[in-house]
Design a protein that fits this description.
about 350 residues; alpha/beta; Rossmann fold; eight-stranded mixed sheet; 15 helices; globular
């Protein structure tokens, strides 16, 4: 009786395997490798080109070993502008809000950590509170005190954290199209993978920027709907700055952090005693204004709430004059500790929903 040994088994397996199986597998691996290499080359070239075409427009301040990029214009009462996820200083510049505000105020617009030309070390989990601490130190270093802090979208969480953690150092808040309470969101699992270590790194330097460029028209349409995307935004917003591997990591990380960040802050909003002006577009398809902005307004009896008709998530682009009116209101409003009454766009119940 003959017993097959290991060598017999391996030899029989090789003989039974189709002759072309190995070449096919090798060809597939080579094709995938070549495709990834080509994608990496395109991403590297586009990154170099867009950074050459869009050099830093402002100044740098180093805080706690981290370099932050900011633009400063105008004089007077300081106004700090904080952009949303997947954006940068240019967002406020293109909208016109920065120039309008600089006519009356000292305007400081930051690239938040990881965006534009600001650093975002991996050693820190960049929650709204962590960003608020960094920005607070930066504002102290450049001589800014008692600013009106304007936050759009994810930047509203950072603005709220500044007001909560440094209430004596914030004059007032203007919160635009914000996300304040945790809800189920389909975009979180779709946008988060590039933040995953190793796998995410491979994605960010190869296929993710190319996929991002393909879906960009759909994404901006959703952000601006029901309004049309303004021509000046299409013409001036540097899409590939947003798709650089470094910035995609920040965007993906904040997508993953969005729900936990809102969860961590949701029970603290009642601590905000400075004036709070809340804005949203009546057609926002990215953030449900009734679940978010209206609920925050109900929770803050001293807040005011403004709804821009015909606007979506990008209110500051569709109605920069209304944003300015809200900044002016925040500049003169009294906080909860100084007011015996409360103004509302509609009556607020005794407690939050």
């Amino acid at each position: 009786m003959h017993y097959a040994n290991n060598e017999d088994i391996r030899r029989n397996a090789r003989q039974s395997m189709p002759a072309r199986a190995y070449p096919r597998r090798n060809t597939t691996l080579l094709a995938v490798g070549a495709a990834l290499a080509a994608a990496a080359y395109v991403v590297r070239q586009r990154t170099r080109e867009v950074e050459s075409d869009n050099p830093p427009a402002g100044k740098f301040v180093e805080v706690d070993g981290i370099r932050l990029h900011y633009v400063e214009r105008g004089t007077g009462q300081p106004v700090v502008l904080l952009h949303g996820d997947g954006s940068m200083i240019q967002d406020y510049d293109i909208s016109g809000v920065m120039d309008l505000a600089a006519q009356k105020y000292r305007v400081i617009a930051f690239d938040r950590p990881g965006y534009g030309y600001s650093d975002r070390p991996r050693t820190t989990i960049w929650t709204p509170q962590a960003q608020a601490t960094l920005l607070h130190h930066a504002l102290e270093q450049i001589g800014v005190s008692q600013p009106i802090v304007v936050g759009h979208s994810w930047g509203s969480l950072v603005a709220a954290a500044l007001g909560l953690d440094y209430p004596d150092d914030v004059k007032s808040l203007v919160l635009i199209s914000g996300y304040y309470y945790p809800t189920a969101r389909l975009d979180v699992p779709l946008l988060s993978p590039p933040a995953i270590p190793i796998i995410g790194d491979l994605m960010r330097y190869t296929v993710s920027p190319l996929i991002g460029r393909l879906i960009w028209p759909m994404m901006k349409k959703r952000l601006f709907a029901p309004a049309q995307v303004p021509h000046k935004f299409d013409a001036r917003f540097p899409v590939w700055m947003n798709l650089r591997p470094s910035q995609m990591r920040a965007t993906a990380a904040e997508a993953a952090l969005m729900i936990p960040a809102a969860f961590a802050l949701r029970h603290r909003y009642h601590e905000l005693t400075m004036p709070v002006v809340i804005m949203s577009g009546d057609g926002d398809r990215h953030v449900d204004r009734r679940v978010q902005s209206e609920q925050l307004h109900r929770e803050l009896p001293h807040s005011t709430y403004h709804v821009t008709q015909g606007a979506g998530h990008m209110v500051h682009h569709m109605a920069p004059d209304e944003v300015m009116s809200c900044i002016d209101e925040a500049a003169t409003a009294l906080g909860a500790e100084h007011r015996g009454d409360a103004r509302h766009i509609f009556p607020a119940p005794a407690q939050a929903i």
